[in-house]
Design goal:
One of its GO terms (cellular component) is outer membrane-bounded periplasmic space. α5 crosses α13 and α7 crosses α12. This protein is about 50% helix and about 20% strand. α7 links the parallel β5 and β6. The strands form 2 sheets. Strands 1, 2, 3, 4, 7, 8 and 9 form a 7-stranded mixed β-sheet that branches. The protein has a two-stranded parallel ribbon with strand order 5-6. It has 2 domains: about 180 residues, D-Maltodextrin-Binding Protein, domain 2; about 140 residues, D-Maltodextrin-Binding Protein, domain 2 (3-Layer(aba) Sandwich), CATH 3.40.190. It contains 13 helices and 9 strands. The protein is an alpha/beta fold.
């Protein structure tokens, strides 16, 4: 089925390329893995407002493929690089094709969403975007938001790093997350997302970590008793466009696409913030015990987690390790 879909996309992409050469109206395919419902899905909201602006302010047409209709994030990125799907909204997949982007996952880097926005929408975000464009052929039109990730478990409240000891936490199969949990004294267990509910239900792991909205919308709060709002990783969304396709557009079309993406990123952030604020109240109302640490208490977590992750990343990134220092400098500037 995937090969058939790819073949059909290739044909339509070729037609789109020929139309671009002739200066005709464009069709932009936009894909993501989240639900289409804009009220509960940050990518869903971002994609829909992108479509509304582009179609309302130009002669271009936007087709949206939500909920993984064209594949997972890795597949969507590959399609964008081949100009089969022109715009994709992804998060974790970006660091796989542009390793420098992984510095954004250094735990406890951002003290708040507004600090993250200042950094990503400023000089650092622009520089990272250009670096990744040169490496991948994908242009970052704007940054959205997946949200701060938080720990939950079914054993005891976690108010300090020492409370992590002996607890098994499901983590994404990404080395950075493994190093983070190890640094905090927990036992990381990489498990695929689809297997997480069963792992929690059967006690294979004691806990997990995800944004509040993800925890509530997927019913994980019903399988966990305690949540700690430590916000250890701020996860960004990347709104990417095929650079090949972007260069085919007329300047006026580029302007509309760039504007629509910036608004889309902001819309995604707003929906994510709404889901987080609403989600905390909902999980508490349904019996979950939520602990909100002070800045001093979060600093204790950072002291344990950051060194292990930074050391790992410096070894992995090689020459790109400079992005760690550039990010830290940008955060310092944004918080002064």
């Amino acid at each position: 089925m995937r090969s058939i879909t790819k073949s059909l996309l290739a044909v339509t992409a070729l037609c789109g390329s020929l139309a671009a050469t002739a200066g005709a109206a464009q069709t932009i395919r936009v894909a993501h893995v989240d639900p289409d419902d804009w009220t509960g899905s940050k990518k869903g909201a971002a994609a829909q407002i992108f479509k509304n602006i582009v179609e309302g302010e130009s002669d271009m047409t936007v087709e949206i493929f939500p909920a993984g209709a064209l594949g997972n994030e890795d597949e969507l990125v590959a399609q964008a690089q081949d100009n089969l799907t022109q715009v994709v909204l992804v998060s974790g997949a970006m660091s796989k094709i542009c390793p420098a982007a992984s510095v954004l996952d250094i735990p406890y880097t951002f003290s708040s969403a507004t600090v993250a926005w200042d950094v990503l929408d400023g000089e650092f975000g622009d520089a990272l975007s250009e670096h990744c464009r040169e490496q991948t052929g994908l242009r970052t039109l704007a940054y959205g938001e997946t949200g701060f990730r938080n720990f939950t478990n079914n054993t005891r409240p976690i108010t300090k790093p020492e409370d992590m000891a002996g607890l098994k936490f499901r983590v994404q199969p990404i080395p950075l997350y493994v190093e983070m949990v190890k640094g905090l004294g927990g036992e990381p267990t990489p498990i695929a997302w689809t297997e997480l509910p069963n792992a929690l239900s059967t006690g294979v792991v004691d806990g997990q970590e995800n944004p509040v909205g993800v925890i509530y919308n997927n019913g994980l709060h019903k399988l966990q008793k305690y949540m700690t709002l430590d916000g250890h990783v701020y996860a960004a969304d990347f709104i990417l466009i095929s650079d090949e396709f972007y260069d085919m557009l007329e300047p006026a079309q580029q302007e509309v696409v760039a504007k629509a993406a910036r608004v889309a990123g902001t819309m995604g952030r707003a929906i994510q913030q709404w889901n987080t604020a609403e989600g905390v109240g909902k999980v508490q109302a349904e019996g979950m015990e939520v602990f909100s640490p002070t800045s001093e208490e979060i600093a204790a977590f950072a002291e344990k987690a950051q060194p292990a992750v930074v050391e790992y990343l410096r070894g992995e990134l090689g020459d790109d390790a400079e992005w760690i220092d550039r990010l830290q400098a940008a955060v310092t500037d944004a918080t002064q």
